[in-house]
């Protein structure tokens, strides 16, 4: 028997599933999973003036800020992906997202400079040293990180087989197996089964969800959607943005990350690594 619960978090619906767990034990485990996802949401929301991201946005050059360990961990991961992808992964894209109306104008923030976020900010333990003002958007990585934390909470509570799905950022663990689907570029109501996922993660980015600073190096038609299968949801989440820009040029990075990608293009063609 598979038990499931869902809660609106991270701007989407987060669903927790477990197989073989008793009702009372599952409720305790699910509450713990939802609690840590809600914590990530509160810490890393650009909309919330009290979040760590908005505190960083208000900071001036030379300031040192104490942040939550989760925020420091996500920033460290984001900087690693930015450097590994030659800037294709860009958590410093918030100024463009604000300009396009995707994020609210901070109002209380220092104007961001031209420095890439991986150079503007330095993580030192649980502190962030601001070398230059930066506005961060963790929309391309925090959801996957939260899914991984939720899985860890479920396992800690004794759940052996289960899954966490946050709006398409999916991680399956134990012996549970699920089929990954992507939406057809020809019919929005049609889903294509593309892979069986077991003890791993996947994430999908679709048109309109990717804000970048790097020019695309894709060959051929533009992507309609990018799906990445990886060991963790955090890695899968970040890699979808990189593959979106780099296409087949991302193969080496995908291999190093032990990940695979599937790209559905505007003309209906498909590329996979």
Return residue spans where pLDDT drops below 50 for at least 5 consecutive residues: none
Q: How many individual domains?
A: 2
For the biggest β-sheet, the strand order reads 1-2-6-7-8-9-10-11
Strand content: 25-35%
**The level-1 CATH class of the largest domain:** Alpha Beta
Task: Enumerate how many helices there are, as a single number.
Answer: 8
**CATH topology name of the largest domain:** T-fold
Q: What would the keywords be for this entry?
A:
273 residues; alpha+beta; T-fold; 2 domains; three-stranded antiparallel sheet; eight-stranded antiparallel sheet
Molecular structure report:
This protein is an alpha+beta fold. The chain folds into two domains: 2-35 and 142-272, T-fold (Roll); 48-130, T-fold (Orthogonal Bundle). It is 33% helix and 30% strand. The chain has eight helices and eleven strands. The protein has helices at residues 23-44, 52-58, 69-84, 94-99, 117-120, 142-156, 233-246, 251-256, and strands at 2-9, 12-19, 64-66, 121-124, 127-130, 161-166, 169-183, 191-206, 223-230, 260-265, 270-272. The strands form two sheets. An eight-stranded antiparallel β-sheet has the order 1-2-6-7-8-9-10-11. A hairpin with a 2-residue loop joins strand 4 and strand 5. Helix 1 runs antiparallel to helix 6 (142-156) and helix 6 runs antiparallel to helix 7. The chain is globular, with a radius of gyration of 19 Å. The mean pLDDT is 90.
């Amino acid at each position: 028997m598979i038990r499931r619960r869902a809660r609106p978090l991270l701007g989407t619906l987060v669903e927790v599933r477990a197989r073989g767990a008793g009702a009372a034990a599952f409720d305790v485990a699910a509450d713990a999973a939802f609690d840590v996802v809600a914590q990530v949401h509160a810490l890393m929301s650009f909309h919330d003036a009290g979040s760590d991201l908005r505190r960083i946005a208000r900071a001036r050059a030379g300031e040192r800020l104490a942040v939550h360990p989760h925020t420091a961990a996500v920033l460290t991961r984001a900087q690693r992906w930015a450097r590994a992808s030659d800037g294709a992964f860009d958590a410093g894209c918030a100024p463009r997202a604000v300009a396009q109306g995707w994020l609210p104008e901070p109002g209380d923030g220092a104007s961001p400079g031209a420095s890439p976020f991986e150079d503007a900010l330095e993580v030192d333990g649980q502190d962030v040293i601001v070398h230059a003002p930066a506005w961060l958007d963790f929309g391309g990585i925090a959801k996957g990180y939260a899914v991984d934390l939720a899985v860890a909470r479920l396992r800690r509570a004794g759940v052996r087989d289960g899954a966490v799905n946050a709006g398409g950022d999916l991680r399956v663990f134990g012996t549970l197996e699920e089929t990954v689907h992507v939406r057809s570029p020809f019919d929005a109501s049609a889903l294509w089964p593309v892979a069986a996922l077991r003890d791993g993660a996947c994430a999908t980015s679709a048109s309109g969800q990717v804000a970048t600073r790097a020019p695309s190096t894709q060959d051929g038609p533009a992507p309609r959607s990018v799906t990445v299968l990886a060991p963790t949801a955090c890695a899968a989440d970040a890699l979808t943005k990189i593959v979106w820009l780099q296409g087949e040029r991302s193969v080496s990075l995908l291999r190093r990350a032990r990940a695979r990608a599937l790209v559905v293009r505007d003309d209906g063609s498909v590329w996979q690594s």
